[in-house]
């Protein structure tokens, strides 16, 4: 053992933390239409924040139900602003929206969370988390007591959401979740959660509205909500770089009812270790990207063991290659049979596609039609004649 | 001497490298009335053997793997917004071959043994592309997929492959925005960091009067090399309004100019010190690339080839137009034989800008007249049926034009084929030569109508048909149902006289907005409430009739107090009586 004692704490660090190895963010806006500009601005503000703190686009699922940036009503094409000073263009030059427009539905959201997606679903639209992933779930839109509206057409209830998280826990799809919601009566949305390790916070109590912060007169509508605005303010002032040690407790303590005009709620009881542990979690455990590398210190490898393993791998590759070649030699014959069978089937299926339509300029068919009609008339006439006898 | 030799050797090396170079880019600028047409073209190729081994150099790996996975041999993908103003702008870029209908359009030749396999591969393709391009391409399902017969021809060399299937889908309502441009730029070798692609800024691009992004992948066989390669062409065409684009990005809202700065039409009777009828500007407006595109051109992309004839930046203006160059690096200008086209070799790693001052022109460029003008509208009124009308005009005084007219209608717009009328004013001859038709099946597939027609010189063809509007199920309405439903643009392919190259020449109409009968979406709740009320009233009355006995008021034994008190009092009395007996 030639480890210097100075290295030991470094090696031990991952075990002390022994926590998550990846970070994911699911950012959901749920309202359509131009006057809900602020909800998309909320979501995009969070998108910029988590991107700034290091979560890559591939681990952010962004759901935008309407197009605000290229909306004909937008006087600033290709931009979304969350402040009337218009200092930061949230849409920017580099953005990847995973679910947009009509794709933002309750069904798609629950399928995404529980990974019950169709076979052809591309990777960018899937939440590929495991039991070591921390997930930030942020939702904003219009809601009420125990429901949140999606696109003004359907609702997700607090029970649906709780069951989705419950299923995720059963499927080992998360380590810890931070659930944030900015909507009217937001705190009711997390009241039904039952699965462990969820830290939840919302903008307003039951029977309380969640208010917008301010409007931009050139954009013409409100640009951000109060709860999100003050969260962002804290994140921008106190969490400046990806090494920040600021804790969730400090964030929650910064919530000011007078500024938010509603009473934000926090739910600690599901969290393993309760309030104290939850409050001591770093903000970057959810908003930043931590890729902990576990160093295997169990066995001391020596040179010979290393070489032996390499040789073993080489043998495996050789074996695989040999088998591949063998199958190559065998395959053509088998394939031929398969092809023949398939050709037989092709002949049987009817070709799909448009059929040629010709206008009937043919006299023959018209004569046949006229004859048929005359025949019918004759039978009818004969029938009535017999009837009259 | 040695240094000279070295130079020679270097030159030779450079020449071979450039001959081998598989990436090429070109920006063509062409002024249009008060606007500028910028057409970007990026071409990269990959030899077939390298492609099969997934050895990608300029060809983007992400797209290459999707094509291999979905067995797609040729791919055409379009993102478009806006309308090409043919009356003022003339003929389209590439004769419309690199343009799509509003929204997203996709067609591909897929290798498969049979129709079902082709369709399942098509679904794989649209789903993968939807992830790559951040667009809802996965909404191209069976109801939006057609198999055109005459409107599209493969551009690539497919040999005599018989198992290729052409599938085509359109999403007219799809929004095109920055999230589509981002992956488009990421496919380029220089990724928008250098070369002409550094000019592509979403803020200006999505403010343009007309914009289209195209991706075309096709196999090309090179007889000289006796080998085939896969060519990918990325095209961006946009028409920028010069005045609009020059507005600063942080303050794009037009504010009125002070009256002193406006040129007034003094011939108007009411013209005075405080009233002004603004004169239309005749001079060519002043602009620079940086002003129009919102960012500077950051030198040449070092990966593109540098042969003569492959300059990355060309501008098509009359010879008298003044063009000043603003750069610190070395550049080369090349004038073509026609001298209306000036091309520039860009310096590397230094910014390059064209500065064009305002100029009164005496000569103009000849604008090529389009072969056809097409417009399509919905006529009729009411919630039940309507009719669609296409007006196609042939401006040529000498040539008849033969074309294919393709419509792909959604299933809820059901045309009556027997009402289809095509007639040319002042001509008794039927312009319809051939018709392919596939009727819609509710919720399973849309209508596919393809007609080959001939339109005589200097005449107008009118095509009309009636259709019926379907009534959707409650859950089938989108969240913004009252906006209306989009019907995809009609595609017109001009067969003869042929202009352009093997890509063909195309025109697309604008999409249609079809108002369908939409219910009041609170209606189910009204129904539930009303039904409950009726139920409660009816049930309550019948229940009362069954279980109650109705007696006259005087027959009721006198009760001291009604209600609970009375009942209790009665019970007490009876209890007392019982106790008394006992």
Automatic annotation (TrEMBL), chain A:
Q: Which ranges of the sequence are coiled-coil?
A: 303-330
What the entry lists under InterPro entries is as follows: GPI_transamidase, Peptidase_C13
| UniProt KW Coiled coil keyword | yes
* Example of a GO MF term: GPI-anchor transamidase activity
Keyword annotations = Coiled coil, GPI-anchor biosynthesis, Signal
**What residue range is the signal peptide?**
1-18
Which catalytic residues are annotated? 142, 184 (nucleophile)
One GO term (biological process): attachment of GPI anchor to protein
Top-rank taxon, per record: Eukaryota
Record Pfam families:
Peptidase_C13 (PF01650)
Q: Specify the pathway.
A: Glycolipid biosynthesis; glycosylphosphatidylinositol-anchor biosynthesis
Naming one, the record's GO cellular component terms include: GPI-anchor transamidase complex
- What does the sequence similarity comment in the record state about its family? Belongs to the peptidase C13 family.
Annotated protein name in UniProt? GPI-anchor transamidase
Classification lineage = Eukaryota, Fungi, Dikarya, Ascomycota, Pezizomycotina
UniProtKB/TrEMBL annotation, chain B:
Q: Which residues form a coiled coil?
A: none
Gene Ontology cellular-component terms for this entry are:
GPI-anchor transamidase complex
For this UniProt entry, which segments traverse the membrane? 525-547
The record, for Pfam families, names: Gpi16
Secretion signal, residue range per the UniProt entry: 1-19
- GO biological process annotation, one example: attachment of GPI anchor to protein
The UniProt keywords, alphabetically, are: Membrane, Signal, Transmembrane, Transmembrane helix
Question: What domain of life is recorded for the organism?
Answer: Eukaryota
- State the PANTHER family in the record: GPI TRANSAMIDASE COMPONENT PIG-T, GPI TRANSAMIDASE COMPONENT PIG-T-RELATED
The identity of this protein, by name, is GPI transamidase component GPI16
Its source organism is Massarina eburnea CBS 473.64
Taxonomic classification, please? Eukaryota, Fungi, Dikarya, Ascomycota, Pezizomycotina
